[in-house]
Design goal:
The protein has helices at 4-24, 28-78, 125-128, 149-156, 226-231, 237-251, and strands at residues 103-105, 163-164, 167-169, 190-194, 207-212, 217-221. By secondary structure, it is α+β, with helices and mostly antiparallel strands. The strands form 2 sheets. Strands 3-4-5-6 form a 4-stranded antiparallel sheet, sandwiched between helices. The protein has a two-stranded antiparallel sheet with strand order 1-2. β5 and β6 (217-221) form a beta hairpin.
């Protein structure tokens, strides 16, 4: 039989446990406050995460360009220093069909025959001649326009059809020379870059990666949207792209008077 003291201890113990349980339970207000705090934290972190992801994609894009630069160097070494030829750049000066130089393979058969090595154009020759064997190199990971890799994956695998990449090829140095000469003055100008054909081809929000004629890759900021505004010009897309190259020449340090 329990004594009075033992009974008092038991009662106190039960009251203590109930008090702890009551304090440990979440109320509806506690839950709502927790959800609100989590929502605020997510709102703060998401922009930072997006910036980190874009910075990562920008680095991957630059890596693609460096590999393409190596391919151009090997191509030039095997072809008397000539850059990869492209039918879209006028030999008589002017803009030619400058907006089409993201085209890597041309299909003039309408899909009635298998692709041939001679169907490849511009930077696509680096794949056709086996200097570069990974098709994804020709696609910027930040691209949100009409020409993602997934659209052309069957064509890269051997199906007939045109192939378009994400990088705009100038087809010549800044002075119009088709010969790769990394020590020439014109090598300080732009040689190829992120897409310029349309606004949706402009893969990065605040600038673009540009490969110069000396095959170095640089980031060109476009915070004032001067280049993007030129890309967005109405009228001839070829002229708009052709007029964009001098802007990038200046941005990467090529003095126009040296032409």
């Amino acid at each position: 039989m329990r004594g009075p003291l033992t009974q008092l201890v038991c009662v106190s113990s039960r009251i203590s446990r109930k008090g702890i349980a009551a304090r440990a339970a979440f109320t509806l207000i506690d839950l709502l406050v927790s959800i609100l705090i989590i929502g605020i934290l997510i709102g703060i972190l998401l922009p930072s995460i997006a910036k980190i992801n874009e910075a990562t994609r920008r680095v991957m894009c630059r890596s693609n360009m460096r590999q393409i630069s190596i391919g151009i160097s090997m191509y030039a070494t095997d072809n008397f220093q000539f850059l990869p030829r492209t039918q879209y750049v006028s030999t008589a000066g002017g803009s030619g069909r400058a907006a089409s130089t993201m085209t890597l393979r041309v299909d003039e058969s309408g899909g009635t025959r298998k692709p041939r090595p001679t169907d490849y154009d511009g930077l696509g020759l680096l794949f056709a001649r086996e200097y570069l064997l990974a098709p994804k190199i020709f696609y910027c990971p930040s691209h949100k326009g009409a020409n993602p890799f997934s659209k052309y994956a069957p064509n890269w695998a051997g199906s007939p059809g045109t192939i378009v990449g994400n990088y705009q090829f100038r087809g010549a140095l800044a002075d119009g020379s088709r010969l790769l000469n990394v020590s020439a003055d014109a090598a300080a100008g732009a040689l190829f870059s992120d897409g310029l054909a349309t606004v949706s081809d402009f893969s990065h929000k605040l600038g673009l990666n540009v490969t110069k004629g000396d095959l170095s890759v640089v980031w060109v900021p476009d915070v004032d949207k001067k280049i993007l505004t030129q890309v967005a010009q109405t009228g001839s897309r070829d002229k708009a792209v052709g007029d964009t190259w001098p802007l990038m020449d200046q941005a990467v340090g090529f003095i126009v008077g040296n032409r």
